[in-house]
Amino acid sequence: MHELKTNAAYRTLLAAGAIDGIGNSLYNIVFIIYAATMPFKALAVSLASMAGLLPALFAILTGYWADKTRRKSRGLIRTYLVQAGLFLVLTALIMQRGNLIIFCMLLLINIVSDIWGEYANGLGMPILKATVPTVELNSALSLQTASNTTIQLVFGAVGASVIILLNHNYALFGLLNAVSFALAAGLIMLRRRQLAVADKTTPSPQSAPAVQQESFIRSAGQTIRYLARNRFIAVVMVVAVFINILGTSMDWLMSVSLLSMHQLWLGDYGFTVAIMNALFGIGMVAGALFANDGLQKLPILTLTIGITASMGLLALAFIYGRSQLLVALAILLTTYLTAKVNPRISAILMTEIDNDHLAQSQGVISMVALIAAPIGQAVFLALINAFGAVPAWSIYGGSSVALIVGIVIVARRVHEPDLADATK
User: Fold this and answer.
1) Domain 2-200 = CATH 1.20.1250.20
2) What does pTM read for this prediction?
3) Distance between CA 189 and CA 76 in Å, rounded?
4) DSSP assignment string, 68-110
5) How far apart are CA 233 and CA 231, in angstroms?
């Protein structure tokens, strides 16, 4: 909160991200609803849902571009303006009669815009690093997480409601998203001088396209090798893979299990799923918002043990299938602790990695996390379909215990960098 009150550059980045997030949150839920109106709605909804995962596959490349961009603030302005232009084109297209070709064009625009968004995130990291004191990075990143999650929750619900009131005027939401990007660009322009502080330490502009490709391959290799050599970051990445295998399976497992576990319903199935999804967001917002609750003093690996134990608690709740309160508590604990870990990892990356590879390093971690997601979903959905909910949750709980043991063993062998020491 200190940086929010005193740091104009941080407020600008937070406000620009919030405005951008409002437009995206409104549009993303509306685009799913639009997909459901297509004659090929099953395919359309599936493609629209999967499209959000694709930009993370490009995170290493967009991170490389961000690292090599000399003038970060100018790059942010251009990125927001390009995204605004893309959504103006989308607004014109979405007014046409829907067919497969139009839908694919809309989907492509959405994906390209999200890839530009990944690039913008990479540009913002060194600006944040240059404008926020190291000891305040964790709190600043936590507040960003709380802001983004709250916006997704609130405006996702608003979009789903307002689109009905507006008689499914999808073009209006595309236009709103274009305006939000333009406003974000305007905010960056107003504070461009303060944000330009990160420009001084960035590398020279890129050269010819052929050299760029060779340079990208070399840069990616160097980034991966550096992450592997940094023992703490390497351990955290491995632990994150296993936690994501379990964590990304939670929502799917609960949704399928609740179909037959009527005793855990709150009224009916749809309302129960909605409430549990809301709990995910509430836990994330609370964990990020209360960044200085004392848990920030615990090591990251200790917090990951708490996350894994909470997932084991959720497994117990579904195995015994009697306590709605236990399910809710497990969800809140898991997400609350997760919101403590993610900003801290980002803060450590900012202090441990130079600006030449900062965004690309974040891209590597994002891609590794993305790879873990379908593994967990495929394994546990196969288990629940083959053997039923209780056996699947039993294996899930056993996996949690095994992961806790593994984390305890490796936690003794690595030392977490101290953010306070980084300022000395």
Assistant:
1) yes
2) 0.82
3) 9
4) H-S-HHHHHHHHHHHHHHHHHHHHHHHTSPP-HHHHHHHHHHH
5) 6
